[in-house]
Amino acid sequence: MPNLRLATIYGDGMVLQRKAPSKLFGFTAGNAPVSVTFERFPQDGDAPADADIQFGVLFHDEEIADPDGYFEFKLPPLLPSFDPCRLTVQSIGEVQVIRDILIGDVWYAAGQDNMAQTVRQSDVAPLLEDSVNFSAIRFYQMNEDGLSEKVPAYSYQPLGEAQGGFWHRGDQPYFCADVSAVAFTFAHELFNALNIPIGVICAAACRTSIHAWLPRETIENDPVIKNHVREVRQYRDEASWNEESIEKQVKRSGRDVDPAGRPVFPKPQTVALLHGLKPDRPEEVPIVVPRAAIRKTLVAQDQVPLEREFTTRNQPSAMFNHKVAPFVGLALSGVLWFHGENDVDSIDYYHRALARLVSTFEALFEPMDGKLTLVLTQLPPFLYNGLDAFGEAEFNEMLAYACHTLPVRAGLVTLYDLPLIYPEKERRCGALTPSSKAVVGRRMAKTALGLMYGGDAPKGAPQPVGLERIGNKWMVDFSQDATRGHDLYLRNGDTVLKGFSVCDESRVFVKADARILYGVRVLVWHDAIEEPVSIAYGYANFNGEANLIGAGDMPVLPFRADREASSYLLPMPWFDCDSLTHFAWEEPITQDVPRSRKTNQPGEKPLWEVTRGRASLDLVVPSLGYSDADIEVIYRNADKRPVEWDAAVSMASAYPPLNLSPYSAIELLLFNPDHREKTIQLLLEDANGVVFESDPRRIEDTLKTQTIAWKEGELANDTSQITRFGFRLVDPGSTGSLVMVRVILKYVPKK
């Protein structure tokens, strides 16, 4: 092994952070002289056309290494440049030369499954076709699991190098196909906006909990975090490290023990680093892994979140030791963090741990202007086992709160408007990681630009800054950033503002009407509620119907006005009658076992389905009274065999049973295009198996919309536990059609 070795981040094709001193450290023989030379050359190899640009030697220094061989230099702050630079480090006959160095912005991208999802697994793959134009975008890629052939198991101590790490250019599609899709799009967007070199360190790892990213000292010194790690059965100390069971005898480890029989551990390298001291030099771990030793690892995305199965990558600090510690002293612009799938059910704990993690980033990294920039991303909707209909919404709410309390520049990206289509796998479900990552990366880039430079770029998802009750209405004011560049608007194609709900003193939230005022405010009301007590927007795990968009083409941040105990509104998209399908789960994914493609995997599912008779459903536009489309039931032989169609109220992602108890009546707004009378019945069934079939109601022979109503007193079953909601139609004319405009749940406040 050569004596002269450099920090893991230094390699051919790297990007150094502009306008910030860059720390260069490494090892050589003890007390050996070390020299460093940093040079810049014209991009095209010719003589520089601009005499003001400095080329040649930009920095030179010499020093004597410590007795243990450690040395450290600080390269001076430099302006961004596409001109290639060369770093030469020499010591007692050994030379390390790093070529093709660019000066620009460096970002550290980390997180869990959604950040680890690669370009080839997402909708970002088409961007590879234009990669020839992005040689100035660079990615530092390491093995996804943080291991290598030389380090095949997780280290209890922080490492000095990233396993399998190397830099590659953005015009190398073979390598870029395995880069984080979010990081890849982020870099492209930032490059196009700033026109400077961009470097991204891709450090995400699937199936990792946040405690795996924290230093060991942080976990040990925080009883809340340590107890949580024990509760989820992931805690390991040095005696039980990398072991399936924690029932290990301390003396068997061969380590010294204190008088109480506890093992005595050496001081972790990270403690020294955090106190500004030099790192230890563990001989058994090489500082640089040769490129030939790079091991491609498959991105493992098959474990079901919250199952709490022990994995060695989730041992305390495992990811910190392998994917954070090697970059101590790194000068950068900021951190991209897309994480939480494994911790979504532990909201208060995660907020505490996230604050500790950000403090760690602040201590280890060197931000460009002295203050760290952090871009967070909400989790996409997913049917997490054990969570109720609002658990993930509360987790995402916590992330928004963290952006206001963390001592860094922080912004949150929303993504609930994106399709949930996921990459198909032969025998497993990939719904945890939807394919839509291009928009996520672009939004994170816009947020980073807004946080660092201001201007028209958003500093995160648009959010309200003021709520005022005027009579029976709520007036919602949005921040200037929310409307910077253009007014608030509805998602493309939508004509009705959805997602708002209000409640009276009963604290039962019901669907509200809403309207954009002057492009900067929203007026929200419910005709039956004279004194609305509170308001919420998009507050549900599956909130894709919320459709208010603000600056940066980013969805408005879901919110609730307070945290009083309430019955929040579950989205009921089938009742809007403006779509035939939506993304849904028929059943939860309960364990990580091979699943046939023929099983009921999540995907586009019908909102309404014909369950009896000869009929089909279709959309008709324009709408006859609500939204932008209606559902038409087209049937035949309805005189002899009634036609029945049901709403998909029993889907697992609808969190059945359906609770209709707050409502005083059910109304069906419909249109009868045929010149004859028909009859229709309401069909309900509750969780106890009680079936209700209303008396037939007459549909008039009239070419205008009409309303059929069923009042609460008529319904002879438990309306708080509805498992079936449907209609039955009889038409003496046999063949015809019926247009459903909307199902209205009438709410009357209790006196």
Could you write a compact summary of the structure shown?
The chain has 751 residues and is an alpha+beta fold.
This entry's quaternary arrangement is single chain
Number of strands: 39
Distance between the termini: 83 Å
Tell me the radius of gyration: 30 Å
Principal-axis shape equals elongated
Helix-strand layout with pairing:
Layout: E1 5-6, E2 15-17, E3 22-27, E4 33-40, E5 56-64, E6 70-75, E7 81-91, E8 94-111, H1 113-116, E9 137-141, E10 166-169, H2 173-176, H3 181-194, E11 198-202, H4 216-221, H5 223-231, H6 269-274, H7 318-324, E12 331-332, E13 334-338, H8 347-364, E14 366-367, E15 373-377, H9 391-405, E16 409-413, H10 438-453, E17 464-470, E18 473-478, E19 489-490, E20 500-503, E21 510-511, E22 513-517, E23 521-525, E24 534-537, E25 548-549, E26 559-560, E27 581-584, E28 603-606, E29 608-612, E30 614-620, E31 630-636, E32 643-647, E33 665-671, E34 678-686, E35 691-693, E36 697-699, E37 706-711, E38 722-730, E39 736-746
